User: Fold this.
Amino acid sequence: MPLRPFGVNLPCLWPTFQALWSIFSALTTNISARLCPD
Assistant:
């Protein structure tokens, strides 16, 4: 069985990465709003 480079699986992982990034972005925004209240 030939080894597959990581790039082959990247399209499958992309939706997961986008979901994690959106969660991380939301958490960062929430923390920033709490640390720096207007």
Notes: The CA atoms of residues 18 and 24 lie 10 Å apart. The mean pLDDT is 79.
